[in-house]
Design brief:
The protein has about 575 residues and is of the alpha+beta class. It has 3 domains: about 190 residues, Orthogonal Bundle (Arp2/3 complex 21 kDa subunit ARPC3), CATH 1.10.1760; about 160 residues, Beta-Lactamase; about 70 residues, no CATH class. Helices cover about 60% and strands about 15% of the residues. The protein contains 15 helices and 14 strands. The strands form 4 sheets. Strands 3, 6, 7, 8, 9 and 10 form a 6-stranded antiparallel beta sheet that branches. The protein has a 4-stranded antiparallel beta sheet with strand order 12-11-14-13, sandwiched between helices. Strands 1-2 form a two-stranded antiparallel sheet. α4 runs antiparallel to α5 and α7 packs parallel to α15. The protein is rod-shaped, with a radius of gyration of 43 Å. The mean pLDDT is about 85.
Length: about 575
């Protein structure tokens, strides 16, 4: 009965060890991943490595399942929190297995070369222990894990060495820094008497607090510096985009100048004027002059343009067209107002658009009306450029040109077709690869208003472009976020430039400072353990010598007492003898 009860207690104790180890590993792993170096596979300090080793050293191999469960849990959490779908569960399983193997190897090496239970009072033993646990055993987990990530294609060969070094450093510092805390807070983990835990805790707290204050100041300084740099870069990108847009609008003004200077403009003159412009500005899909004419004069315009084109190419038959419900080109139907594509370049790529009545299309009609009424450039909502193989979004820019004569061929719109993707790519060519950029037309709506997007998911695009999203939510998702309005005459685009981290690039100086401060605090903790051990040993020797001296003094006093008693007894005997002789 007693044997059965003892067996149940042992099993329950094993379960407790496993659960406590797993929970503690996950919590320390969560703290460690907050300091992860993107893409989140290595940290500057991984305190869970120290916890795993301490648990195995204290409880033996029965703590290994807890290490595995904790490592697996934190690995899954990191992948899920990073937005990565877990399609292959083998990776977190193997990562957890490698962490467990690392703790087991450390346990075997310590038991073989240091011995268990170990003493914490000899510097040589401490140095040997740290070399085995922090330098040697940590090579197991980082090497196997990094090779797994490389084999799975998660990291590239270029990042292999840096990831391995960061991983190994994080585990090593985690062991050096975490073990003194665990042994001081829970002296029973040391198995053998642990020196002055309160003194060590106070020392560790002081060292850690100093390191934390120093690192916090450095992080805030680095954050302010990179925030200012981000704002400057974002402003530069916005200015570049405005300059590109301004260049496109200036080209339309030059086309308008040509029309005003040439009342009898011919296709050849238009071709010569626009050829160089199109060659030097690849963001332009095309340029055209669209004549605005009333329904009463539309036939005269068609006849005049037919003569103009037949003079250059007799085989070309100019005709004014529109599209039916199926999108097919058909002869135009007379209306009160027409806007006819009269000249267009490049001609070969846009021959189907020549003669098209833009005013017959509802989506274009609204933009044409606003442009004419405001006498400003006005863009259409984003459209898909079907003539472009890349199938990128684009816009039509309409610049109204008015003549004093109502039926003059100089009434119309200088029109440009802008490739939005190329325009933004040119403006943002020097943008850092990690910056998130969204260019949109807010008046076109969320679904069709996106002109350009970089480093953003569809859900992020929708949140940025939605007016109903709380600014607090956006600031949590994008700690760095700037919004700019890009004016295009009477309409504006909105440009968002964001970063998903508080840092626009890795603050390696801060990482190095954090690692150095943590390592220094950990080593000082071990130094205080050695000092406390020496102090305890000296006090032990003093107590031992004091007790020995006290015992010797007691023996001496007792000897003196016995000697005095013997002398008194001898004197009494002599006195009795003398009295006996005197009486005789």
């Amino acid at each position: 009965m007693q044997t059965s009860t003892k067996s149940i207690r042992q099993r329950w104790l094993t379960v407790e060890v496993i659960l406590i180890t797993a929970v503690a590993y996950f919590l320390l792993g969560y703290i460690g991943q907050l300091m992860a170096v993107p893409p989140g596979f290595a940290t500057i300090i991984w305190p869970a490595a120290g916890l795993a080793l301490a648990a195995v050293l204290a409880f033996g191999q029965r703590a290994l399942p807890g290490v595995f469960i904790g490592a697996f849990s934190i690995s899954v959490y990191i992948r899920i929190s990073g937005g990565t779908e877990i399609n292959d569960w083998l990776i977190p399983i193997l990562m957890a297995l490698y962490a467990t193997l690392q703790a087991h190897v450390g346990y075997i090496l310590v038991r073989r070369f240091v011995g268990l239970p170990m003493t914490y009072r000899k510097p040589a033993v401490i140095f040997q222990f740290l070399f085995i646990t922090a330098v040697l055993s940590t090579l197991v987990g980082c090497t196997l894990s990094v090779l797994l990530l490389l084999q799975q294609g998660i990291i590239s060969e270029e990042n292999l060495l840096s990831t391995w070094l960061s991983w190994w450093t994080g585990d090593a510092i985690g062991v050096i820094f975490t073990l003194p805390w665990l042994l001081s807070l829970f002296p029973r983990l040391a198995v053998t008497p642990f020196p002055r835990s309160r003194f060590t805790i106070a020392s560790l707290a002081g060292f850690t607090l100093s390191a934390a204050v120093l690192c916090t100041l450095a992080i805030n300084e680095e954050r302010n510096k990179q925030t200012a740099e981000f704002n400057n870069d974002a402003s530069t990108l916005a200015n570049n985009l405005e300059a590109s847009v301004s260049n496109a609008t200036n080209i339309l003004y030059s086309v308008a100048g040509l029309v005003k200077a040439e009342p009898n403009l011919t296709p050849t003159q238009f071709r010569r004027f626009t050829a160089r412009i199109l060659d030097e500005n690849p963001v332009l899909q095309g340029l055209s002059w669209n004549i605005r004419v009333s329904g009463d004069n539309v036939h005269q315009l068609q006849a005049r343009l037919q003569r103009s084109y037949s003079t250059e190419n007799p085989s070309h038959k100019f005709a004014i067209t529109e599209r039916n419900a199926n999108g097919e080109l058909i002869p135009f139907a007379q209306r009160p107002l027409h806007v006819v594509v009269s000249f267009i370049e490049p001609f070969a790529n846009n021959i189907k658009a020549l003669g098209y009545d833009v005013y017959s299309q509802a989506s274009r009609k609204e933009a044409l009306k606003v442009a004419w009424e405001t006498e400003q450039i006005y863009p259409t909502p984003p459209i898909m450029l079907v003539q472009d193989d890349s199938q990128q979004a684009g816009v039509l820019l309409f610049l109204p040109v008015k003549s004093e004569q109502q039926n003059s061929l100089q009434n119309g719109y200088a029109t440009g077709v802008i490739r939005a993707q190329d325009l933004a790519s040119l403006a943002f060519s020097k943008a850092a690869n990690n910056k998130a950029i969204l260019l949109m037309d807010p008046m076109a709506g969320i679904e069709s208003g996106i002109l350009y997007s970089k480093n953003l998911t569809a859900a992020q695009q929708q949140r940025l472009s939605s007016a109903s999203v709380d600014e607090q939510q956006l600031s949590e998702e994008f700690p760095l976020l700037n919004r700019y309005e890009i004016s295009l005459g009477a309409r504006s685009w909105v440009l968002y430039i964001a970063n998903e981290s508080i840092f626009i690039y890795q603050p390696w100086g801060v990482h190095l400072l954090l690692a150095s401060a943590t390592l220094f605090a950990g080593l000082l903790g071990w130094f205080m353990i050695i000092v406390a051990g020496y102090t305890d040993e000296i006090e032990f020797e003093v107590d031992k010598r004091t007790k020995e001296l006290s015992l010797t003094n007691q023996r001496l006093v007792l000897s003196e007492q016995r000697q005095n008693e013997a002398m008194q007894q001898a004197e009494k005997s002599n006195r009795a003898k003398s009295e006996f002789l005197a009486n005789m």
